Amino acid sequence: MKFIKAAVIATLAATSVPALAAVRTVTLAVDNMTCVTCVPMVKKSLSQIRGVKRVAVSVEAKTATVVYDDKATNVAELVKATTNAGYPSRLKRSASQQRRAR
Ligand SMILES: [Cu+2]
């Protein structure tokens, strides 16, 4: 477990290094999305982040699914972007990071 933690810290520390990018897909639960007009607002806030490759927003599910390069950005940046746009969010699901059963 200690090793995994160190690896995560090392990954975060290397955000400015553009080598061997790992593409991740995460789903954020997004607050304040009440109508279809909110979709482009949320989408734009996420698309502007360096390293974000694809954004899919669902007003029905109140989620934003984001494909990003984890060498360029991270979940905290994604959350900050939607929050600054007026749509607070949090990590709902991380598709590419799988947890092992104990
Ligand atoms: Cu709206």
Task: Describe the model.
- Pfam families: HMA.
- InterPro entries: Heavy-metal-associated_CS, HMA_dom, HMA_dom_sf, MerP/CopZ.
- This protein is α+β, with helices and mostly antiparallel strands and 102 residues long.
- The chain has one domain: Alpha-Beta Plaits (2-Layer Sandwich).
- The protein has three helices and four strands.
- It has a four-stranded antiparallel sheet.
- The model has no long low-confidence stretch (mean pLDDT 84).
- The structure holds copper (II) ion.
- Residues 34-35, 37-38 line the site of copper (II) ion.
- Copper (II) ion is lined by residues 34-35, 37-38.
Helix and strand topology:
Layout: H1 2-13, E1 23-30, H2 38-47, E2 52-58, E3 63-69, H3 75-84, E4 89-94
Antiparallel strand pairs: 1-3, 1-4, 2-3
The structure holds copper (II) ion (CU).
Residues 34-35, 37-38 line the site of copper (II) ion (CU).
Unreliable residue stretches: none
Provide mean pLDDT, rounded.
84
For the largest beta sheet, what order do the strands appear in spatially?
2-3-1-4
Mind telling me the CATH class? Alpha Beta
- CATH fold title: Alpha-Beta Plaits
Order of helices and strands: HEHEEHE
User: Any ligands, ions or cofactors bound here, and which?
Assistant: copper (II) ion
Structural class: alpha+beta
CATH architecture: 2-Layer Sandwich
Approximate shape: globular
**Radius of gyration using CA atoms only:** 14 Å
Determine the strand fraction and express it as a percent band: 25-35%
Give the helix proportion (percent range): 25-40%
- Major β-sheet annotation: 4 strands, antiparallel
Counting structural domains, the number is 1
* Helix run count: 3
- Total strands: 4
Q: State the end-to-end CA separation.
A: 12 Å
